[in-house]
Design brief:
single chain; alpha/beta; 5-stranded parallel beta sheet; 3-stranded mixed beta sheet; 8 helices; 10 strands; 37% helix; binds NADP nicotinamide-adenine-dinucleotide phosphate
């Protein structure tokens, strides 16, 4: 299949060569085809790959991967030709430049609201991203389900961590209470998958490391 990849950074430079190795014809849409980055990615993408202008690349393929920063996305889309019938593969995450949060769609969490309603208490968000079935039995094959928790009080978090270990889940410290907004969003994803996606409640998120 012909694939247009807009951007040759970390994502474009990771997926492009891998798809090329699977036999897809990759055309990169770039600002400067002579740059060392573009040339390096091209070298890894096989003889059939090419780099051209962004508009030309998008016109040349039915599937277009947007591998560009969120703050460039509107400008890049406006520079493309007609997109009717194209598949736009969107991996863009609207992250603030200092990685402090989402640049779009961020909302306060129930956990932070609970902390405001309970002055003096140490709120720890936990046990919200797994099903009750997983709470009863957290083991999948030989692996424990991951339990994310977050909060601002280290001692309270340590207590919750131990309570997580006590029910045989794998505790993962997800940072300050601010991050409860992401855990609550994860719970919505889980609920969608369980109820509408056919996964049911006998499934769980798992962090992996190497
Ligand atoms: N890195 C990850 O692990 C990861 C994982 C999932 C999703 N994402 C998302 O994937 C997207 C790309 O991330 P990345 O890590 O690959 O970024 P990156 O390494 O900074 O690469 C960005 C690419 O976009 C190009 N670009 C920037 N501004 C442009 C503009 N105005 N017009 C045309 N091209 C432009 C850059 O080209 P120049 O060389 O010309 O500047 C570069 O090739 C982001 O939205 C990110 O949130 C990243």
């Amino acid at each position: 299949m012909d694939l247009a990849i807009l951007g040759t950074g970390r994502v474009g430079g990771a997926l492009g060569p891998r798809w090329a190795a699977k036999g897809h014809r990759v055309v990169y849409g770039v600002r400067d085809s002579s740059s060392a980055e573009v040339q390096g990615v091209l070298q890894k993408s096989g003889a059939g790959a090419a780099a051209t202008g962004i508009r030309e690349a998008a016109a040349a393929a039915p599937v277009i991967l947007l591998a560009i920063p969120w703050n460039a996305t509107r400008e890049v889309l406006a520079a493309l030709g007609p997109l009717e019938g194209k598949i736009l593969l969107d991996c863009v995450n609207p992250i603030k430049a200092d990685f402090s949060g989402l640049a779009l769609g961020e909302a306060p969490s129930a956990a932070e609201q609970i902390a405001a309603w309970a002055p003096g208490a140490s709120v720890v968000k936990a046990f919200n991203t797994v099903s009750d079935a997983t709470m009863v039995n957290p083991t999948y094959g030989s692996q424990p389900a991951t339990m994310f928790y977050c909060g601002d009080d280290a001692a309270a978090k340590a207590t919750v961590r131990q309570l997580t270990v006590d029910v045989e889940m794998e505790p993962v410290d997800a940072g300050p209470l601010h991050n409860a907004r992401y855990l609550e969003a994860m719970s919505m994803l889980y609920i969608h998958l369980a109820i509408f996606g056919g996964w049911g409640g006998e499934c769980a998120f798992k962090m992996m490391k190497r």
